Amino acid sequence: MTKERVSKNIPGTDNRYETVHNCQEDIAAVFRYHEDRLAALRDIAAGISAEMKDLSAFIEQHTAVVCPECRSVCCINLHSYHTFDDIVYLYAREEKIPRHTAGLVDSDPCQFLGKTGCSIQRDLRPYRCNWYFCTPLLDHIVEHNSCRHYRCFINLLERITGKRQKMMEEYASVLSAVVPE
Q: Three-state SS for 37?
């Protein structure tokens, strides 16, 4: 397992399903064989999860109004795959990666999209799924919140992003200590 192998297997190619599987294997090996070095990473991931739950409470009051009326589904299969960083986070949380159906058409509605929205708990979704806000959703958020609440929402997004960056720096630190260059 090398950092180079993983970084070359970025979703966005025809082998997306295999790429996710390869990343899982590599990351699983780090967590399996270097558990003693991952306490700080797990703590950071727990903080991300807690803040994602706060974000979910805020977002869902708006998606419950906007998304059921939507005629242009923005949640498509292409975006349903977890990235390398997402997989590190899920392993740190000791969560399973949702099972993807191989061979789906990228432009079809996401395989995890149900009648009431995403079937994946918000803090376990791919990062991109939590950061994409269509114009109608953003308009609704702005129209139905005070400036103070909107700033709190933006600050929460920034805190989560910062913690995620810190988590990946910690992972890189562990990886550099255990994988020769």
A: helix
Instruction: Report the C-alpha gap between 12 and 20 in whole angstroms.
Output: 11
- C-alpha 158/C-alpha 143 separation (Å) is 21
pTM of the model: 0.83
| Token pair listed for 119 | 């079937």
pLDDT tens digits, 3-39: 444 334 434 444 665 666 778 888 999 999 998 999 9
What number of other Cβ atoms are within 10 A of residue 90's Cβ? 20
The size of the chain, in residues, is 181
Split into its structural domains, the chain has a count of 1
Compute the distance between CA of residue 130 and CA of residue 64 in angstroms, rounded to an integer.
15
For 44-181, strand residue ranges (E) read 113-114, 117-118
Q: Is the pLDDT score of 1 beyond 80?
A: no
Coil vs helix vs strand at 77 = helix
The residue segments making up the domain with residue 84 are: 3-178
Helices (H), 34-73: 39-66
What the block records as the tokens of 64 is 């419950």
Averaged pLDDT for residues 136-145 = 94
Q: Is the backbone of residue 97 left (phi > 0), alpha (psi -120 to 50) or beta?
A: beta
Pair type for strands 113-114 and 117-118? antiparallel
Helix, strand, coil percentages (3-state) for the chain, rounded to 5, are 65, 5, 30
